[in-house]
Amino acid sequence: MSPTRNRHRLIGLAAATLVAAAASPVTLAHAAPSATVSPVSVAPGGRVALNITGCGTKTGRATSRAFGDVQLTPGNLEASNLFGGATVYNNTPNGSYPVTFECGGTGGQQITLSLNVTSGAARGGLGGSTDSMSRGEIAIGGSLVAASLGAGVWIIRRRRTHPSA
């Protein structure tokens, strides 16, 4: 066979492959969505952040008996990240509650996680900063503060009694 004839056969085969590829249906494969609830343990009346990625849609929702139905909105132009927030009902009993995320409208891909509702409220005030300190650490910290205040007073008094020229 001549090189020209082989070239024509290759071109014909390539053209047939392109036509077959163009005629076949195109499917977009989306990875299974992944979701997060943060924090996973919350007291009644507390807030949780809801996030789902990999939907391939611009709408979504999260539903739970602990907070009801929340519409999720896109976090970027590509809508690869849908997010929202919810407040757990004040009268929610302690326990584990399923949170169902759904991509798009009814019948879209779903993923379910757990939310733990615990008794008590979040710590406020000092945030536990004095809970783990020993008396010795507090005494050392107090003496350092007292020493720095004493040094400051000494420097200020010295400047007043000995003015510089």
Topology of helices and strands:
Layout lengths: L2 H21 L10 E5 L2 E2 L4 E7 L6 E5 L3 E7 L6 E7 L7 E9 L6 E8 L17 H27 L4
Parallel strand pairs: 2-8
Antiparallel strand pairs: 1-3, 3-6, 4-5, 4-7, 5-6, 7-8
Describe this structure in words.
- It is a single chain.
- The chain is of the alpha+beta class and 165 residues long.
- The chain has helices spanning 3-23, 135-161, and strands at residues 34-38, 41-42, 47-53, 60-64, 68-74, 81-87, 95-103, 110-117.
- It has an eight-stranded mixed sheet with strand order 1-3-6-5-4-7-8-2, with no helix packed on it.
Low-confidence stretches: 24-30, 123-130
Radius of gyration: 33 Å
Could you tell me how far the N terminus lies from the C terminus, measured between alpha carbons in angstroms? 107 Å
Total beta strand runs: 8
Mean pLDDT across all residues, rounded?
76
Major sheet description: 8 strands, mixed
Task: State the helicity in percent bands.
Answer: 25-40%
**Largest sheet strand order:** 1-3-6-5-4-7-8-2
Global morphology: elongated
The number of helical runs is 2
- N-to-C order of helices and strands: HEEEEEEEEH
Structural class: alpha+beta
Into which percentage range does the β-strand content fall? 25-35%
